[in-house]
Amino acid sequence: IGVYIIFCTFLILFAGLRAVGVDNDSLSYQAAFNFYAKSSVPAIIKGGFGYAEKGYVFLNYYAAALGLTYHDFLILFAFLIGFFNFSYFSKYSKYLFLSVLFYVSFFYFYRDFTQIRYALSGALVFWFVAFYQEKSYYRAFIFFITAVLFHNAAFIMIPVLLMVKYIDKKLIYLLLPIPCLLIGTLINSLSLLLSFNVDAGHLSIYKNDQSGGSLSISIIGYILIVLYLLANKNKITDKYGSYDYLCWKLVALGVSLNFLTLGVSIFQRFSGMLFQFSILLLPIIVYDMRNNFKRKDSYFLMYLFVCLLLLLYGFRIINEDLVRSYKMF
Fold first, then answer.
1. Eight-class DSSP state of 69
2. Using one digit for the tens of pLDDT, what is the confidence trace for 118-131?
3. 321 exposed, middle or buried (CB, 10 Å; 0-12, 13-18, 19+)?
4. What's the Cα-to-Cα distance from 225 to each of 66, 143, 274, 290, rounded to whole Å?
5. 8-state DSSP, 320
6. Distance (Å, whole) CA 214 – CA 285
7. Which one is predicted more confidently, 226 or 204?
8. Lowest mean pLDDT among 36-40, 151-155, 160-164, 244-248
9. Alpha-carbon distance 47 to 297, whole Å?
């Protein structure tokens, strides 16, 4: 656990000590920090143009009031993101370092470096779901409200948790991504919303987006869905109360949602809240497959192969469109 703490501390400092401009959004966040520092509580409560979610704005405001600089604020924010993520992995993951490696390869440079509001909200959503599953509803409510105060994408968890509570058929979750992919291919969800003039001013920014909605992420997610079933083929049923099973259903719904909104990157903020549970699902799958290997060295080679695939994916997503050469402030 000591090595784990040291490695996680390094990741926190690596993100928190970065220079402004290393990532895509830090210049914008710096301008927002200076703007919020000069604002007032009534103005923040009123909101309007230039104001983000209240939790993020107030954190900027009070950080500046306490004399913190923008670089101090980045370190603080990196600590909050890292603390809630890595403490969650420590408590709930079957394999700690596999979860951290998954997080670094798929999320770290997108969230901790760039989408920091979303990153903290996602970390809080982890704990919200955990407390909800444990029927600790008071703590779940606190974490949910806090998550929403940093990014409104956390609202997606309400209809999703209602769905997973009342729909428990594995076949539905396994097959749902298929019609969603077909619909997403035929119908552009963004154009459909714009036709109803839903937040047209903001959504129109994404009208010409050609990102593909991270189709590769959805394919990887679907592979994990199938692998979970194969790894548990001898298990007669999964109980609703199983946290492993809940993670599987959340990833399945994340894949379905991403397929449904194919080609529109703005909707990834919602599907990403669900897909992030792959960080637990992959270790669950690897753990459940241990009985399929008679030799420990064969199991170790499989584990090593999974780690190498994650590293390969992580290296492939690092490019100048996402992050520039690293510099400390």
1. -
2. 999 999 999 999 99
3. exposed
4. 47, 27, 13, 18
5. T
6. 23
7. 226
8. 36-40
9. 58
What residues have CB less than 8 Å from 277, skipping those under 6 apart? 126, 129, 247, 250, 251, 254
Indicate if the pLDDT at residue 194 is higher than 60: no
The string of DSSP letters for 256-283 reads HHHHHTTT-GGGHHHHHHHHTTHHHHHH
What's phi and psi for 326, nearest 5 deg? -75, 135
The tens digit of pLDDT for each residue in 163-185 reads 998 888 889 999 999 998 898 88
Q: Which two tokens stand for residue 304?
A: 């090593």
What is each CA distance from 310 to 92, 111, 219, 223, 295, in whole angstroms?
Answer: 20, 17, 14, 14, 23
Tokens 């000590």 sit on residue: 17
Per-residue pLDDT tens digits for 101-116 = 999 998 998 888 888 9
Query: How many angstroms separate the CA atoms of 274 and 307, rounded?
Result: 22
- H-helix or E-strand spanning residue 255: helix 243-260
- Helix, strand and coil percent figures for the chain, each rounded to 5: 75, 0, 25
Question: Does the reported pTM lie above 0.85?
Answer: yes
In order, the DSSP letters of 110-172 are HHTTT-HHHHHHHHHHHHHHHHHHTT-HHHHHHHHHHHHHH-GGGGGHHHHHHHHHH---HHH
How confident is the prediction for the chain on average, in pLDDT?
Answer: 85
